[in-house]
Amino acid sequence: MNVIFLGPPGAGKGTQSKRLEEQYGLVQISTGDMLRAEVARGSDIGKQAKSLMDAGKLVPDELIIAMLHSRIGQPDCAKGFILDGFPRTLGQADALDKMLSAENKKIDVVLFLDVDEDILADRISGRFTCSKCGATYNEVSKPPKKEGECDVCGSHEFKRRADDKRETVVERLKEYRNLTAPILPFYEKTGRLYKINGMLPTAQVTADIEAVMAGK
Ligand code: AMP
């Protein structure tokens, strides 16, 4: 089973795709995480991507398509994958279709997490993660049970994404509106697009996703 998560930044794609990964034994592929790893390694890809990411802009299609192509060709993806943050342009959606059909594969489900734009900036600027185990938190909706201490591993160190600053978030939302939202009709036409209300409590969103997956 191959799944795509679509939705604006801060919609909960990362959280929900990690849950699906555990439950269905699929591999989560986050192009944002892959790029952040390239930036941290100081690779050529990382160098090309960093200034665009810091400015809240999308990185060029050619770069991201090549990176994704080599990732989904790896053996662990044979049992199925979840794309989180890809495709983000019509060019990427088209390239994905072509690379999958060349291998007799397809996308089975496209889950669109729908969240009103006016609540996204607050959601994103409040989020942070444990530096040690990666557990995710939000200042408003999901603070650690004990202030300053990770619920999962007890660490006292947390980090925020450089591009979660308010100024950058405005730009990321603009890129979403102009370049990513237009791919929704592309997947609507396939009959495999499912709209999920991403403004409900996280557990309810998970349950709604599970209901779609159960019918597959
Ligand atoms: P994310 O973690 O998915 O929010 O992605 C963080 C940043 O990485 C984005 O703001 C873009 O600069 C870049 N990025 C991630 N995925 C893509 C993609 N599919 N196409 C273009 N840029 C991407």
Summarize the structure in words.
The chain has 216 residues and is of the alpha/beta class. The chain has one domain (2-205): Rossmann fold (3-Layer(aba) Sandwich), CATH 3.40.50. The protein has nine helices and eight strands. It has helices at 13-24, 31-41, 44-54, 61-72, 90-101, 117-125, 166-180, 184-188, 202-214, and strands spanning 3-6, 27-30, 81-84, 109-114, 127-130, 136-138, 158-159, 193-197. The strands form two sheets. Strands 2-3-1-4-8 form a five-stranded parallel β-sheet, sandwiched between helices. Strands 6-5-7 form a three-stranded antiparallel β-sheet. Helix 2 crosses helix 3 (44-54) and helix 6 crosses helix 7 (166-180). The chain starts with a strand and ends with a helix. The model has no long low-confidence stretch (mean pLDDT 96). The structure holds adenosine monophosphate (AMP).
